[in-house]
Specification:
about 180 residues; alpha+beta; Hypothetical Protein Pfu-838710-001; 4 helices; 9 strands; about 25% helix; CYTH-like_dom_sf; CYTH domain-containing protein
């Protein structure tokens, strides 16, 4: 199994929320997520992410999650492994010892919900704005790109104006910092 997602910049959150409600999507209360992204020391922004493992340490409600994602078809179609860790600082030290370098910190307020068989996240990302992500788990025999097109059709069926984004939050933040 691997995770496939599509992401969109939201210009009218009220319209999106109304459309989601009309489709029976109930969103959770917002939670704050503090993510530190990591890349292999030899990797640099601008290089391909396909086949490269990336790590993340997330703190949410006092709980720390360690995640490794390896993009397969593109940045939004990844093999993913995730587990709870007891000590964020010790895990940070372990990642640095294993040859990972901290890249960017991503802080967001996230609301989640289910839309049939898919997961949905509404994110207010500090320094970037509001985004909606739709995610599905697929088998390794299914094309990530085909699944993304299916998910894109689902989002487009809402009838609200959104802009599809193919970069991850870390890449978007990095681009914003470089431009500013």
């Amino acid at each position: 199994m691997h995770e496939v997602e599509v992401k969109y910049r939201v210009s009218d959150e009220t319209a999106l929320l109304a459309a989601l409600t009309a489709h029976g999507v109930v969103l959770s209360d917002a939670v704050r997520q503090d993510d530190q992204a990591y890349a292999p020391s030899a990797w640099r922004y601008g290089m391909s992410k396909i086949g490269v493992p990336f790590a993340r340490l997330r703190t949410q409600d006092g709980r720390h999650l360690f995640t490794v994602k390896r993009p397969v078809d593109n940045e939004m179609a990844c093999l993913e492994h995730e587990t709870v860790v007891a000590d964020r600082e010790q895990m940070h030290g372990a990642l640095v010892t294993m040859g990972f370098t901290p890249t960017v910190q991503i802080v967001k307020r996230r609301r989640t919900g289910r839309w049939g068989e898919v997961s949905l996240c509404l994110d207010a990302v500090e320094g970037l704005g509001t985004f909606v992500e739709v995610e599905a788990l697929i088998g390794t025999e299914e094309s990530g790109r085909a699944a993304q097109e299916r998910l894109d059709g689902l989002v487009r069926s809402l009838g609200v104006t959104v802009t599809r984004i193919t970069d991850t939050y870390d890449s978007l933040l990095r681009s914003t910092a470089a431009a500013g």
